[in-house]
Write a structure and sequence with these properties.
Layout (H helix, E strand, L loop, with lengths): L5 H9 L17 H10 L3 H11 L6 H34 L4 E4 H9 L12 E4 L4 H5 L2
Antiparallel strand pairs: 1-2
Helix pairs in contact: 1-2, 3-4
């Protein structure tokens, strides 16, 4: 039988973008450092933070909320910057008649999550038709 730690069980719940606040029980004694580290490693720290904030439990140490808030704000700012860059790139391509298809990170962030910052991404992946590669490089 596979044993799942209390921290992993809690993180799995916190990673649900549609978590109902009343479905979560927390304890101060849980390994919050472990949870924060694993949330960062697995790219779910923003979702985890937003869910913890919704719960507003006195069982969550304030230092945990502060660290996760800072990580969330950093992710949100990076997401906004990348999305703004994406808009400029797409405008440039459209001005030259180049069609693009957005893939992966930003596409998932803006279509599947209530807030793009819930799905961290660091780059932009665009699919172009072969005939448009050379003109795209000139922009």
């Amino acid at each position: 039988m596979i044993r799942i730690s209390e921290e992993d069980r809690l993180l799995l719940k916190l990673a649900d973008p549609e978590l109902a606040p009343d479905s979560l029980q927390t304890r101060k004694s849980v390994g919050w450092d472990v949870i924060m580290h694993k949330a960062q490693v697995h790219g779910v720290s923003s979702i985890a933070y937003l869910n913890l904030r919704k719960i507003g439990s006195s069982q969550i140490p304030s230092v945990v909320l502060a660290k996760m808030s800072q990580a969330y704000e950093t992710t949100a700012l990076r997401s906004l910057f990348i999305l703004n860059q994406l808009q400029e790139i797409i405008k440039g391509f459209e001005g030259k008649g180049i069609k693009t298809t957005l893939l992966r990170g930003p596409a998932i962030g803006v279509t599947l999550y209530p807030q793009p910052a819930m799905r961290p991404f660091d780059d932009i992946d665009l699919l172009l038709e072969k005939k448009d590669i050379k003109p795209a490089k000139e922009i």
